[in-house]
Specification:
The complex is a heterodimer of chains A (89) and B (139). Chain A has one domain. Chain A is 83% helix and 0% strand. In chain A, helix 1 runs antiparallel to helix 2 and helix 2 runs antiparallel to helix 3. By secondary structure, chain B is mainly alpha-helical. Chain B has one domain. Chain B contains five helices and no strands. Chain B is elongated. Classes of the chains: A mainly alpha (89), B mainly alpha (139). At the A-B interface, helix 1, helix 2 and helix 3 of A face helix 1, helix 3 and helix 4 of B.
């Protein structure tokens, strides 16, 4: 039963990733692209954790944690760049 | 017992998948940036939280080891999602401040993000470049 649920969740998050990719290419402004990138990172974290469950390995949590941190920092840096035209003042 | 755990984990996974899909679909569907901000920051965060809790239960019940990494990732994501949403909204407001019509705040003071244009109060994010520190003359 878990197998089917995992497949369903994989399909959902993969489709979500495709939606984000579409939004990155077709967006009305740069802020929407940043938002789509942030969502993409979150979806990738979910995919990594799901893959960790399928392969019975706890190794992917470190990768997910690193993704969460770098995703947050990159979004903040991008927003700061849009706001000020500079990241570290 | 095993069947109950399996059912709970499967339900969590399915709910998480639906929430994640709704969050990403809202990014396409909703009409403008400020409303689009809601979909990923709330629904997708909930989806990832569901996946992480399902993973924690799975490793606890079927592998016999309780790991705290998932809780750490969940906490980190739930802490950072509002911050990124706030920053993105701020960037949008400053970038398109001419086009968008902001509603009245209903108080004496205006929107805090645009404070530095009217008063002398400088919020942290919109602070102007600091003047060079005065050098101390040697005696």
């Amino acid at each position: 039963m878990i197998h089917y649920a995992l497949t369903f969740a994989f399909a959902c998050f993969g489709l979500g990733l495709l939606f984000n990719l579409y939004r990155i290419f077709v967006a009305p402004g740069v802020v929407d692209r940043v938002l789509a990138l942030d969502t993409m990172v979150i979806n990738i974290i979910a995919l990594l954790v799901l893959y960790g469950i399928t392969s019975h390995s706890g190794m992917y949590f470190e990768a997910a944690l690193l993704f969460a941190m770098t995703g947050f920092v990159s979004t903040v840096a991008y927003c700061k760049f849009i706001l000020r035209g500079d990241i570290i003042e | 017992m095993e069947l109950i755990a399996e059912t709970i984990i499967s339900l969590l996974l399915v709910a998480a998948g639906v929430f994640g899909l709704v969050g990403s679909f809202g990014l396409l569907k909703l009409p403008d940036t400020m409303t689009r901000l809601h979909a990923p920051t709330k629904a997708t965060s909930l989806g990832v939280g569901g996946v992480l809790i399902a993973s924690m239960l799975y490793f606890w019940i079927f592998q016999g080891k309780l790991s705290w990494h998932e809780l750490l990732i969940t906490m980190f994501l739930f802490l950072t999602a509002p911050i990124t949403a706030n920053l993105i909204a701020k960037a949008h407001m400053h970038r398109y401040s001419k086009q968008i019509k902001l509603p009245d705040t209903g108080t004496d003071s205006g929107w805090a993000t645009f404070e530095d244009e009217t008063t002398e109060v400088h919020p942290v994010m919109t602070r102007t470049r600091a003047a060079p520190a005065p050098t101390k003359a040697d005696h």
